[in-house]
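ERR on first pass: missing label on line 2. Operator R.T. fixed the label and resubmitted. Corrected input:
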Amino acid sequence: MNRVPMEGKVLNENARVAAELRERFREHRVLVVNLVSSPGSGKTTLLEKTLEALPKASRVAVLTGDLQTENDANRLKRYGYPVKQITTGGTCHLDARMIEKHIADWNLDDLDLLIIENVGNLVCPSSYDLGEAAKIVLLSVTEGEDKPLKYPSIFFKSELMILTKTDLLPYVPFNVEEAVANARRVHSEMEVVKVASLAGDGLQEWMTWLEQRKQAFLAELPQPVAAP
Amino acid sequence: MHELGIANSILDGVAAEVRRRPGARPVKVGVRVGELAGLDPDALRFAFEALTLDTPLAGLALDIEFRASRNRCRDCSHEFEVRNFELLCPACGSITTSCISGDELEFAYLEIEEAEDSTLHEEIQKI
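pass 2 clean. output:
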């Protein structure tokens, strides 16, 4: 019997494609964010409000993942931006290969921002790097404030937690401070934004976060050489 | 939930390693799985067994090395095991600590023996 060392990540192929994508996104200066949450916590509604609130002619595109149906893409296409549905046919997460395939006929030079709406699932998407600059986790106030402790992996890997449906707070036993404290137990630097997408509360704060994240992303990149 | 896909990726890695070593029969593969990797070890073992059944890799053992979540304090450099998501530095009380292990999902080793059956390698080549 002979034991030989093996190196590399188990999801090597996904990691390789994700690293290639990340490099392409950096080269074309496209900020990519990956939205994750349980089903029904308001990712699509937040996206609708986000697309509505963006300045006209913003250079943004959306990839939206679900097991079946084109429903989300149809909802999001109304805002006039490029939107593609990724139907996974049963797979519980998006992987880097799906992203690569679905952006193939988009010219990344035409984009500043790509928003990926992952399959509704707090577990599996945390294992799959999509080449994004930031993961953003949504938690709706109808879900319970201990979700970050029950599903720590995804909260650990997300930069921002968006508490959604805050307009329902008067009707549900949800302790906002405890939810934030739980998220920060898992990830001490977690940033938090509270929104009620349908009522419009907090949307401005979210848009500001997104703009600042874009500036931070661009500042990390090598500066383009100014034309003489 | 996604353990089946992970098990498949482990087997892809084993098959690639075996292709590089003609005449070798894999006996056991070791992987490091961190506490924060979001994997259920039992589900992973189940998926692994189901995928290898009736294939040339049937009987291949899976050794899961569990890695606890560990952080290092950015103020005093103390390293500690994170229990119950208590991220505060136990030495100096600082809240700025960062993860140094616990999110792994990587290969560790492969145990191989000389294949008695020379056709085995050809079959593994096809996987």
